[in-house]
Write the structure tokens for this entry.
Amino acid sequence: MDIENEQSEKKKWIFIIVGILILIAIIIFAILHFGKNSTVVKQISNVLPFGQLGTETPRGNITGGNNSVGNNPDGTTPAEGEKPMFLQLAKGPVAGATNIIRDGKTYVRYVLRENGFVYEVDPETAISKQLTNTTIPRVYEASFGSEGNAVVLRYLTRDPLTRLDVIKTYFANLELPTSTASSTDTVGALRGDYLPDNISALSISPDGKNLFYLLPIPEGVSGTIISLTNAQPPKEVFRNSFSEWLPQLFNDGTILLTTKASAKVPGYAYLYNPKDHTLSRIVREKNGLTTQGNSDGTLVAYSENIADNSTFGLYSKEGFHGDEGIITHESSVPLTTLPEKCAWGTIHHALYCGSFTGGGNGNIPDGWYQGITTFNDTFWMINTDTTEITFIADPLKSLQKNFDVTMPFIDNKETFLFFVDKNDSSLWSMRIPQATTTDSGGIPPIDTTLTPAEQKDAAGSVTH
Amino acid sequence: MKSIFYILLSILFLGTFVPNTALAGFDLVNITTSPKTPGANETVTVRIESYAVNLNTANLVWYVNKVPVKEGIAEKEITLRTGDFGTKTTVDIVIFTADGVKLNKQLIIAPAEVDLLWEAQTYTPPFYKGKALASYKSLVRVTAIPRFNALTSNPKEFYYKWTYNRIQNVGEALGKDSVVIPMGYADSPVPVSVDVSLPGTDWKGIKNSSIEGTEAKLVFYHQAPLLGVEFNHALTGTQTKETEFTIYAVPYFFSLDNFANGNLLYTWNVDRAYRAPDFDQQNLTLVKPSNTAASYDVSLRVQNPKRILQEGRAQATISFIAE
């Protein structure tokens, strides 16, 4: 009898324990299922052995390729209908690229460094077509304007007398065969003229209508604007005793002038208005300052070197609204990158960046410019209204490839981030994970919060 | 003697009947500020002194922007904070002497802002987006960018007075917005200062800065036959399948005039033996031995005999792979 009682008592406890476990399981399931975006869920998910539950990060979309066709990391092709996240658009070293829209579809035009030929590639298929066959060897820089129909090629020659390098700048229009041409294989040519020798820097406005260049003169530097859409003569609009500027021309004709950067030297950035010849200071006395403004200059991304660490921030002409109504013009962004690695969203209030970790031996940006430091970038999006950051992709994990992002730009539909990998000057596209857009142009409500573990996990590493 | 004193006193007394600003320049009472040229949003001490008026027994009333801030016997100084950039701060002092004389003094603080930008006249390669740094005995052009409101107007309208190394005058003149100064040793910063004023106005500004020196450096790159110099990647060592490999040396931050005049001495060594460079001294071309693997340790020393401490060294190992 005692034994029976004891067994009955044991069964009773087993039922209670099993019941409690089932209840706990139901509660956990309910939390994970109905509270996908809560921080608690993420923390729980992180410790679960079976991975991320309840969250759908863009990582799941990452597939990639190391050739013209995107492949999965294991070498298999993506499932039918699944589009690769990374796609190599040009294998050969590229001097510059831009995106165009034709018949409602996005294409990328680029210039090959070795011969100056212009190609056009479909970013969906990576199929390229040669547009011009005018040979200009060893092109170092190429910039497009006039909706991809004009190009500025920069290359070097040697002065036979002084034996010094001379920078040649060739500004040309693309003369393409008409659509009525019988053969689709017909290749066009470049027709243009040379700008003055030794132009130190130039910038084409985002709308592609104007070009601004700086030319060293004995008294300092001279700045000239050229229209790319009409035959107006070049007009000198700027003169200054200081010559070491990097310019960025905006659509409204104003020019962001930033002093060339070095890690331990304070840099300045000014907005120059050619109409009244005034300089208004935007950012001042930041070591290693580099900048990049959006198309109208209302927002400027900048980086500075603080105690051998590269820090990133946004400058807003209008100002950021802080607590208690305080307006500040500068706001830091918790991302380690350089503005040269970022491209402004064309629809959303967003900035897409390649981001690195490590200080690059502290000598940033000098080491990167000199080719001594290279970075392994991960891809992030910054909400420029809130400065919140969102992880997009780690190509090292998804593609087993390191990218050192440079010359990034976004297509008009904000579907792709195009960039040149500084390691080999190859041209790539990254498909931007799409979500429901908002009418105001704000960032759609996709997952924007990352745990420190995720941020660390997402970050690349620096190599020297 | 007594009559002179009465005349002076009469003049002072007359001052009580004329507008305040009329006596602003009256020099019997001097106003000084510390710092001498205040900036925007800066704490400033304003003092008055006089050899003609006994301020120790006078009642002094201080106004800042027409608001009374201090009053008392022998209160000869106040501390105030200047306004935002582009705004003027007006300080009025009303002095009631023990003899019953009333004097007015006025000071307008109008801080101009000055940025000091410098660019070293040293070599960097074409298309280099970084700054040319100052090295031993290199020349540096310093440029002032002054403004007295949010916008910088024509810098040639301002008057500039330049000094470097704290005491050495480098000139002063209307419109002289830049000067060229020499650097010393690489590890010795050179202080530079400029006083800027806009003639005919109260706007004044001062800026002190320091130019840091650095060592000149040498970096190797690959000069590719089809692509040109690959500035994207510094070369420390590489393997190549080609039959020729050209190294291109960039002497960063050597003085530009010496570089342009061909004064730099290039000493190339391959496997520790001297090797004559190509026609262009910045280049050295290695040739692969017939169909065999080979590795070469290449080093280069560049010296500037005109500025003897400008020197750089670099080395790289180039390995030709057998076919």
